[in-house]
Specification:
heterodimer, A: alpha/beta, Rossmann fold, globular, B: 434 residues, mainly alpha, elongated
Chain lengths: 262, 434
């Protein structure tokens, strides 16, 4: 696999040169049609994300951050350009194949957990596996294992309504990792949690993703989250403003500074 | 996974419902069980709304089943009425003869000459040789009986004058005398009947000429006699148990005395016909009270069909509304599931199943409720006739159709919302905030 993307060679750290690209966007444009008005959300984004990376996408609201995020997650198709997820161009997929891809390649963690309230923790984790045609017994075993991994082995029979936010988000992590995805998309995973719980969640996510070699892509404003990121992508006006490596970031309590102003 | 962990999972009920547990172990693929968990889970979480939706199905289907069954009751009753009304009645002459026989000949004696002739004609008394022969036999029997009776009476008197006779012995002797007397009376009454018939037959032979005016007079006379007879058996509107007892008694008498079964049969038929007439009158009255026209019922009532269609349409709209609510409420859930890889077909299936589940439970309950209401209202409005005319054969058919239409309507009502849910973009799961 070619580790060298067509652009952004300047932003690439030396150690990343030997790594697989798991997500690659090529000149992605997205235009939302609202009646007669065309609103461009993305105006040509080229981005490579590597396997096992922990990447944050940042940007003010309306910058196209969410659009890019959805595009990477296979939830949305670009108007122009190409998005490769694990070497698959999502623009070429129909909805059935997209669902297939989402099921097996991508795990999602939402800000508001989005567990299904009628299912138990275990069933919530099993669900994506049943979508992926994993046999019932295997799915159950793996789900239980994952719940133990996130520290909820004794709460597998609880429904989300009887769990705290932190516990719910941990179930969500287990669910996101259920199908051994290539990437995990985390949309403000700590946004609905208090500081300490958020820290725990971040630590857990970091630990599991590095253990499993999963790429984590996160949209966040949480400093603690940025603190463990390998790279941060800044989006502004539908374009990548800059990409920074962890080493270039200076994170202090209460505010964030960049080492070199671009 | 450790062995302990494994056994812990296996030994505890993994899925709350027994229903799901029974489906366990199918293995592989998107199992029915997962679907059921999601469907029943969805219903469980929104229990109140599910119940309200189900109640609307229950009401509509109960109405449908009730209308279907009750309509059958009415049709059956109307059919019974027309059937009974069309039964040919016995000739008054035959009835009169039966009456006459039981009145031991008094009747014929009181009849006018003209009446006699017509009655004799009606009874085919052209040939009376059998009766003459039988009467001769009876004469001999009676004189024999008289002889026996004299002995019995004598022995009784002897016993009464004897000293030291117990009361029981006396009682026994008296009973013997009474029985003997009864026998003679019976034979005499039969002789009288034959005498009447023979008289009539002879009389008929002597007066062959017919006069239509006299026939009318005879008819009127016979009708009067018949009604008088019936008046002794029953109150004007109902047979009481006593009436029935009386009639049975008369029939039993006829049998024990070896009377020609002709009279007994006539009496039986009269009884049956009276019952039918009364039943028809009662049924007509009940139908009128219930505001049901026999003729309209037989012709089919378009008003009811319209009502049923309205009820079912309302039910469908209610289901559609509930399912739309269900979908809009669960946008985030649906989006989440789609993010996790649920196919559009699955989402459609999920909502159709949820609605079908409501439909099955609602329609099942509704059919039973409809059956109960139909039974109760049939019993209340048409008394026993409602229950005897209850459509047992058509019942299962009506209930089956009600059930089926409930489920079909529930599924149909859910189609728009299910399609809406399936078409929905998974991105919405991320966008929509709580």
């Amino acid at each position: 696999m070619n580790a060298t993307g067509p652009t952004q060679t300047a932003d690439r750290s030396p150690e990343s040169l030997n790594r697989d690209t798991v997500v690659r966007t090529l000149d992605v444009e997205k235009i939302y049609q609202m009646g007669d008005v065309e609103t461009p959300a993305l105006r040509g984004v080229d981005l490579d994300i590597y396997r096992g990376e922990y990447m944050a996408i940042m940007g003010p609201s309306g910058s196209g951050k969410s659009t890019l995020f959805n595009m990477i997650g296979g939830l949305d198709k670009p108007t122009r350009g190409m998005v490769f997820i694990d070497e698959v161009d999502i623009a070429a997929l129909d909805s059935f194949e997209l669902a297939w891809l989402r099921c097996r390649k991508i795990g999602y963690i939402f800000q508001s957990f989005n567990l299904l309230p009628m299912l138990t923790a275990l069933e919530n984790v099993i669900m994506p596996m049943t979508f992926a045609n994993v046999s019932t017994d295997d799915a159950r075993d793996r789900a239980y294992e994952l719940l133990k991994e996130v520290g909820l082995g004794d709460r597998w029979s609880h429904r989300p309504g009887r769990m705290s936010g932190g516990q719910q988000q941990r179930v969500a992590i287990a669910r996101a990792l259920a199908n051994q995805p290539a990437i995990v998309l985390a949309d403000e995973p700590t946004g609905n949690l208090d500081l300490i719980t958020g820290e725990e969640i971040i630590a857990k996510l970091k630990q599991l993703s590095s253990e499993m070699g999963v790429t984590v892509i996160s949209a966040t404003h949480d400093h603690k989250m940025l603190d463990i990121c390998s790279r941060v992508v800044w989006i502004r006006d539908g374009r990548i403003e800059r990409i920074e490596n962890r080493a270039d970031l200076k994170i202090e309590v209460g505010r964030i500074e960049t080492g070199d102003s671009a | 996974m450790s062995r302990a962990g494994r056994s812990q999972i296996r030994t505890q009920p993994l899925y709350g419902d027994d229903l799901l547990a029974s489906l366990k172990g199918e293995g592989g693929g998107l199992t029915t069980r997962t679907l059921l968990t999601l469907v029943t889970g969805g219903l469980r979480v929104r229990l109140m709304r599910s119940i309200v939706t189900m109640i609307s199905v229950v009401l509509a289907i109960a109405f449908l089943a009730y209308m279907g069954l009750f309509n059958h009751v009415q049709v059956n009753m109307a059919n019974a009425i027309t059937e009974l009304e069309n039964v040919s009645t016995l000739s008054p002459a035959k009835v009169a003869l039966a009456v006459g026989e039981f009145n031991q000949g008094d009747l014929i004696g009181s009849m006018s000459v003209e009446d006699k002739r017509d009655l004799a004609l009606a009874l085919d008394l052209d040939d009376i040789s059998t009766f003459e022969h039988e009467m001769a036999g009876l004469d001999g029997t009676i004189s024999q009986m008289e002889g026996t009776h004299a002995i019995v009476v004598a022995s009784q008197q002897e016993l009464e004058q004897k000293p030291g006779v117990t009361e029981a012995e006396l009682e026994d002797a008296r009973a013997k005398t009474a029985a003997s007397r009864h026998k003679i009376d019976g034979a005499k009454s039969r002789r009288a009947l034959h005498a009447n018939r023979i008289d009539l037959g002879r009389w008929l032979a002597g007066n062959a000429a017919a006069d239509p005016k006299l026939a009318d007079a005879l008819n009127a006379h016979l009708v009067r006699v018949q009604s008088e007879l019936l008046a002794t058996w029953r109150t004007p509107s109902h047979f009481t148990p006593q009436d029935m007892g009386h009639a049975e008694h008369l029939l039993g008498l006829a049998k024990s005395e070896g009377q020609t079964s002709d009279a007994a049969a006539t009496l039986k038929t009269v009884l049956a016909q009276e019952r039918q007439k009364r039943a028809v009158a009662d049924m007509r009255l009940l139908m009128r009270r219930a505001g049901v026209s026999v003729e309209a019922t037989l012709a089919g009532n378009p008003m009811d069909t319209w009502l049923i269609v309205m009820a079912l349409m309302t039910c469908t709209v209610g289901i559609a509304n509930a399912m739309l609510m269900s979908v809009t409420e669960r946008f985030r859930e649906i989006g989440t599931m789609k993010c996790l890889g649920a196919q559009d077909a699955l989402v459609v299936k999920l909502f159709l199943l949820e609605s079908a589940f409501q439909g099955i439970v609602g329609a099942g309950l509704g059919t039973v409720v409809g059956l109960l209401i139909a039974l109760i209202s049939a019993a209340l409005q048409f008394a026993g006739y409602g229950l005897t005319n209850f459509p047992v054969q058509q019942m299962w058919q009506v209930m089956g159709w009600s059930m089926l239409s409930g489920v079909v309507l529930a599924i149909l009502g859910a189609v728009p919302s299910a399609l809406m849910a399936a078409r929905m973009n998974p991105v919405d799961a991320l966008r929509i905030e709580e």
